[in-house]
Specification:
By secondary structure, the chain is α+β, with helices and mostly antiparallel strands. Helix content is 23%, strand content 24%.
């Protein structure tokens, strides 16, 4: 398996050209500051991992961008929020490479620099079609096999941090023994986040085994979520005596806040990857619930909200890289470029 590189972002002592603010940002990877939050906004400053950026207007956001003061040009501009870490309080006086002078561990994405070149300058249906061309034709695996199958892949993509023998479960954050595959209902199973009855693709190669939307989950939680659409509301689901933090009602499932963006981006991926070609299902997002058994999944307006509420994190970036480098050899564009969501479905 290819080795992934994790590095620590060092906060270097620097001369700040602005007044300390109540909140501040630390850049988590290379980024740009634009004059306007629109895609075509002119870039006037490039910043590097570890740079400090000050929030303006109490962190107001527009189209997923923070309003900030640039660290060098001392000008106001806009930076996409998934490229930074937000901290509360006055800007500290960091010392280089000592004590607490580090950010959280940052994942350095293995995305090729030219992977999305064909999508530059596009939006709407044209962007959606081009992204499909970029990510389709991936290497497919079987659902269950003596060779490498979905079970084996999920043990790598969802391996618990700090516990090489465990997998982290969607919806509950529990950690289960990776080798306890199903285990008569007491282990873990495989959740189709895009419910397989929404398009009737089952567990066939392709949509049914695409690990970009398959996640380890408690068998009991998998059964309870069933094929519900995603939306807000309901009562908390208690799994035995465990409070999951997820809500459910008769026609929808609401994951806890920390996983809402993950769920949304998996569904965005499926709606782009599967367009009815080569006998594959044509999957689309709907602003309705109760969409099964049609090849639709909802609720789009809620998923757009969740995408903004829960930005891309290092867990998703790491998982995206493992799938790309070691297994399917395709990527989830909405993890690499969260702004694509607004550019396709924003209206």
């Amino acid at each position: 398996m290819n080795m992934m590189r994790i590095s620590v972002g060092i906060l270097l002592l620097c001369v700040l050209h602005f007044t300390a603010s109540a909140d501040y940002l630390v850049v988590s990877r290379k980024a740009t500051i634009k004059e306007a939050p629109e895609k075509k906004g002119k870039v006037f400053e490039r910043v590097s991992k570890g740079d400090i950026v000050v929030l303006l207007d109490d962190g107001v956001q527009q189209n997923g961008y923070y309003h900030v003061t640039a660290p060098k040009a001392d000008r106001a501009g806009w930076m996409y929020r998934t490229l930074v870490r937000r901290y509360e309080g006055e800007i500290p006086g960091f010392e280089p490479a000592v004590g607490n002078a580090t950010t959280e561990l940052e994942w350095e994405s293995q995305m090729p620099s030219d992977y999305y070149n064909a999508a530059i300058g596009l939006s709407g249906d044209a962007l959606k079609a081009t992204l499909n061309d970029i990510i389709d034709g991936h290497q497919e695996f079987t659902y269950t096999s003596t060779a490498v199958d979905v079970w084996d892949i999920l043990k790598e993509t969802d391996r618990a941090i700090g516990d090489p023998s465990g997998v982290k479960l969607l919806y509950t954050d529990r950690v289960r023994d990776a080798d306890a595959e199903y285990n008569n209902g007491s282990g873990w199973t495989r959740e189709h986040v895009w419910a397989k009855s929404h398009g009737d693709f089952g567990t066939t190669r392709g949509a049914g085994t695409d690990v970009h939307h398959l996640r380890p989950v408690d068998a009991s939680v998998n059964s309870t979520r069933n094929n519900k659409d995603f939306d807000n509301g309901g009562t908390e689901y208690i799994d035995g005596d465990f409070a999951t933090g997820c809500l459910r009602d008769v026609d929808s499932w609401e994951p806890k806040d920390s996983e809402k963006g993950d769920v949304a981006r998996m569904l965005f991926y499926m709606a782009v990857r599967y367009e009815g070609e080569n006998e594959e299902p044509d999957l689309e997002l709907s602003d309705q619930v109760n969409t099964a058994p049609t090849p639709y999944h909802g609720k789009l307006s809620t998923l757009l909200e969740w995408h903004d509420l829960d930005p891309v994190d290092n867990w998703e970036r790491r998982r995206n890289d493992i799938i790309y480098l070691d297994f399917q050899h395709n990527r989830n564009p909405f993890i690499d470029h969260p702004e694509y969501v607004q550019m396709i479905w924003g209206n």
